[in-house]
Amino acid sequence: MRIAIDLGHGVGTDRGASSKYIDEEEIIDNVGGLVINKLKALGHTVIEVRPTSATSVSNSLVQRVQKANNNNADLYVSIHANAGGGKGTEVYTYQCKEVAQARNVLNNLCSLGFANRGIKGSNLYVTHYSNMTSMLIEVCFIDTQSDVELYKSIGNNKIADSIVRGLVGETSTVSNIS
Questions:
Q1: Spatial distance between the Cα atoms of 168 and 88, rounded to a whole number of angstroms
Q2: Which among 8, 76, 108, 154 counts the fewest CB atoms within 10 Å?
C-alpha cells in the first residue's frame, strides 16, 4: 500500500500548539516517525508529505496534499495532537465519512486508555482535497494534564503500534526513529 504520512505542522513558524505540559510537535515527530518506520518495515511505500519550507500555513497544506496526490497514495494520514482543554482522541475524515482504518485507529488508541471523542468531520484541507481516503488523527490533548500523563505513560512506541495496526492490520517491532 502507498501511504502518505503527514507529520502535521513543523514547517517555518507553524510549530503546532504548545502547552506547559508538552508541545504538539514533540508528539507528532516522535509518534509519526515511528509510524513511518513501522510501515516501511512492513513493506509499505511511505510518502512523507511534510514540506521542508513553506511561505504560509496555506502553502504548507497545499504542498502536503499535492505531494500525496502526485504520488498516487492509497491513504493519507495526518498526525496531530489536540489543544483546547478537551480530553481524549479523535479522528477526522472527509464529511465524517466512516472509514474502516480511521475507526480502527480510533478504537486502538482508545484501548490504550484515551477517551473516545469519535470520528468527526470538518472542512480540513488535508481531508477535503486529497484524492484518496484520508484522515487526521488527534492523539490526545496537549493542554490537559491527564492526557499528557497518559501519553507519557503509554509511550510513543505503543501509540505508534496502535496507529499502524489500525491502518494496515499489523505492526512491526521497529521501536526507534531513524
A1: 23
A2: 154
